[in-house]
Amino acid sequence: xxxxxTYMELKTGLKGxxxxxxxxxxVSVGMPLILPAYRDSLTEDLEGANKVNLELPTEExxxxxxxxxxxxxxxxxxxxxxxxSSMVTATIKYVGEETSITFEKDFxxxxxxxxxxxxxxxxxxxLIGIAxxxxxxxxxxxxxxxxxxxxxxxxxxxxxxxVKGFLTFEFFGFWWMLAGLFIAYLSVSxxxxxxxxxxxxxxxxxxxxxxxxxxxxxxxxxxxxLFIILVAIVGLTxxxxxxxxLHEFSAETVFLSLIGCLPFLLVISAFGMLTAVIFQKVRVGxxxxxxxVFVEYFxxxxxxxxxxxxxxxxxxxxxxxxxxxxxxxxxxxAGDFVILAVxxxxxxxxxxxxxxxxxIPT
Amino acid sequence: MxxxxxxxxxxxxxxAIIIENLTKLYGKHVGVKNLNxxxxxxxxxxxxxxxxxxxxxxxxxxxxxxxxxxxxxxxFGLDSHRDTVAIREKTxxxxxxxxxxxxxxxxxxxxYLLSLNRCPSTKKMTELAExxxxxxxxxxxxxxxxxxxxxxxxxxxMADQELIIMDEPTSGLDPLMQQxxxxxxxxxxxxxxxxxxxxHNLAEVEKVCDRVAIIREGQLEVVEEIQTLQxxxxxxxxxxxxxxxxxxxxxxxxxxxxxxxxxxxxxxxHENLDSVIEAVSNHRILNMNLTTYxxxxxxxxxxxxxxxxxxxx
Lengths: 362, 313
What we know:
The structure holds 2 protein chains of 2 kinds.
Chain A: H1 4-12, H2 14-42, E1 52-55, E2 63-68, E3 74-82, E4 91-96, E5 100-104, E6 112-119, E7 126-132, H3 141-144, H4 150-153, H5 163-196, H6 200-203, H7 210-242, H8 251-259, H9 261-279, H10 282-303, H11 310-314, H12 323-329, H13 334-357
Antiparallel strand pairs in A: 1-2, 2-5, 3-4, 3-6, 6-7
Chain B: H1 2-12, E1 15-26, E2 29-40, E3 44-48, H2 55-62, E4 70-75, E5 78-79, H3 84-90, E6 91-94, H4 106-116, H5 123-131, H6 145-157, E7 163-167, H7 175-190, E8 194-199, H8 202-208, E9 211-216, E10 219-225, H9 226-233, E11 235-241, E12 255-261, E13 264-269, H10 273-280, E14 285-292, H11 295-312
Parallel strand pairs in B: 3-8, 3-9, 6-7, 7-8
Antiparallel strand pairs in B: 1-2, 1-4, 4-5, 9-10, 11-13, 11-14, 12-13
């Protein structure tokens, strides 16, 4: 008899769960597959780049060496400098017979150099090639250094061009919302709809205590949370294997980084069930639970702004699911896992206590 | 002291439900006030009252679906709000308003409830479905109101529990099905079951109940044997004759009131139904209708009078 309610809940919710799993598969397999295309999009295709060579200094303030293939018909060479590859606002850097110049790197930004040959036969100069001081650049690099976004990386220097950095933003950055709101929705409606659709009277006239009713529903939610995490683990590992990046981002890292969100989801689930028991309405419970998830999220983000706001971080459940330390430091924080699990249990105990005191509405 | 307690609990064994001084307040609104009621084992007790009188509140307090403000309810000697699970093991319940799990087969919904009730046998479930002509292969969300009510009746009875509590069991059932339901209920009583049934329909209560408790505005008015109640209230006979007849002709023993209304005679009969019919049959009858007092008439005619008398004395 034990587990009948859990079983029924899983059975009636199976179709929705499978549809949602399909969405997770698409996202978790698809995200790694996008990485190569993303990298390509950031690598510029400069004209005649193979004919021009630019050597950057190893230390700051060093010398740049720019050399190019000589042009047979050319008598003179001209080098233009600009911070845009289109050379709209170019200044003349050099005019002369040499095929190589050396100059000091006394600037920070990216600059482009166009080398032209002045021919004796034609009037117009001929373009030999263009070189740049930086290769393809990660456009998020500047953004990540902003403290407002420090929460996404916990202050780490992360590159979007690498698989770890890319998945940190493009998968883990919204996985909490996808999985968290799904579990929030299910956990609220699994209880509140029994109130709204007047199923509670019949349910609680069977020899099922209110405590067992809640525990069985919570078990169903735990199974679902674990299931969607496992689907994501399989999907993400599959996607990484497909782009041959498992040496960079191993299956074990995928597993440990995602399994850490199990107690995180269970806290959301327990909170959702608590609102359902208190307000007994799907809409109200859902609104408050969604609000809870977002408030926790912003507490975490603001908590990373500065030292004085750090306390905010400590009261956010997001702080205790540290996938970044798994991804970048190979460190799984078991202590945080336990903290969230304990919090979920405490919330469920409160939920039972409230439910046992509540009148079932007609 | 010990002896008294034992004696009281021994007495309690014969009672299915004992409600003592039950009060339930919803804020300032009174649901039930100082209600005392005993339902004996093996009887069919009707719980009669107009809508909003407190029937549902009493029933739901008994099953601990709502907390009580004051008082005590004992079911088979068990405390209603402490031994909830043990009580529910012995009790089948049909709520006045209920929903089903959507998009599942009726049979799987009922089997689910059977398993929650720890009843392994589906025999009674199929038997009841046949008697009530309910197709167990239908989906729960495709049911009409009447069919949904049948599902409710079946789920209350199928686990073969000792006590059956029902709140307006025949609402939504067509008259033929109502008759079948009454037969089922009598069968349950023969097997020794106790039935506590809330209704606002006096005729229904008269048909199936041994005793009736009448509640109004949260307070118990009276508890009476059905027979006594019937003697007090009587039947109403409406007759239409082809020729005019004198009212005096029907002022015979057992008839408390004769009214003439637009060519029809309305007689209130308490006893001697046969001699009244004899008197009626002396004339050519166009139409005839024998009815029970409605609950409203019952209160108006009988209980308000009695109260006034009590007040006067």
